[in-house]
Amino acid sequence: MSTFSEHAAPFGAYFSSLAQISGALVGLVFVALTFNIKSLGLRGRPELRDLARQTFADFLTVLVLSLTLLLPGLSADAAGYVLIALALVALLRVLRGLYGAVTRTADARARGQIVQRFLLSLMGNSGVLCTGVIALRGMVDSDALWSLLASSPMVLLISGSRSAWMLVVHSDD
Fold it and tell me: What are 27-37's pLDDT values in tens digits?
């Protein structure tokens, strides 16, 4: 019986690249947060703080997902459980952040932009959840599993990058 890792081997360079990219982005977001502590810190704008937290979490999710999939000898069950746990935690965080951002943002235009960022994150994390379920069912040679494993982290990287840009160009007026 083949392991999940054997099926993931052809994607090794892809997941290694994702881990490097997301690791660098986690660091950059952390640095950006320290430089914008006035608007993103505890006394700053709560909706931007929620968005910054979600941006950081999206990049961290991609990092953990990538590192997990690079583990040698990983079984389909182990991969499925890790992906499901990772996705559930991320989805709860997205929903909590989305609710907070929507209820605390008075400006309809800003609220719409923030909702778009959270929905893209919701979509990427839902893909991770579906991947975990497929893996747990032992369908490691499924095209759906590998399509989702290739696309879900990309959606999270796009979500985080778009949100990071919004955090950089926001105005403090």
Answer: 887 777 776 66
